[in-house]
Fold:
Amino acid sequence: MDAQRRTYLVLLGVPGAGKGTQARMLEETFHLPQISTGDIFRYNLKNQTELGLLAKSYMDRGDLVPDEVTIRMVEDRLQKADAVNGVILDGFPRNLVQASALDEMTADYGGITSAPLISLSDEDAILRITGRRVCRTCGAVYHVEFNPPKKSGVCDIDGGELYQRDDDKPETVRNRLYVYYKQTSPLIGYYFAKSLLTELDGAEPIDVVNEKLKQLVSQAISKKTN
Structure:
């Protein structure tokens, strides 16, 4: 791949649409690292980097981490060796300020390649998230309806206890959707105006969505490099 033409994918969709799952599958196909703001924050906090300590100072006060700090963390991550051919972004940008900053970060490498939107109804999103259960010991993820464990409440892998994360509870999920529509949904119009947006039906089976995504990304990469 031309070093000056990198692949930058921005996955859009409501919480529960499957962005993380699809990002991991695309990572294997296109050999591009999946980058999520959650992972970046955890890395910087765990390693007590300058940016991590700065973010923690806001979090300790109960304040939101400013866009400027998040943007600097992402910019730092995009400069790592494994991102030399591009990345798959899951959860960034979250608003128009971050989207504009991302455009500046990627401008020298051809800009954003594609911004697929995985669509899902609010009802389906709530069902998916509230039914999620996580193993306390190994972190394996299940779903009470779509991917239940062999024994209720017990992990198939190591017998650990399965629990529902606080941010997966119904009242929290509805607030997450509210925040999405308030802050993140404007990105749909932003990328549509740039002719980068393509909508896919997130209610279809995971493998079907993935096949359509792979075709879409392949075409976008081909168009960008020609």
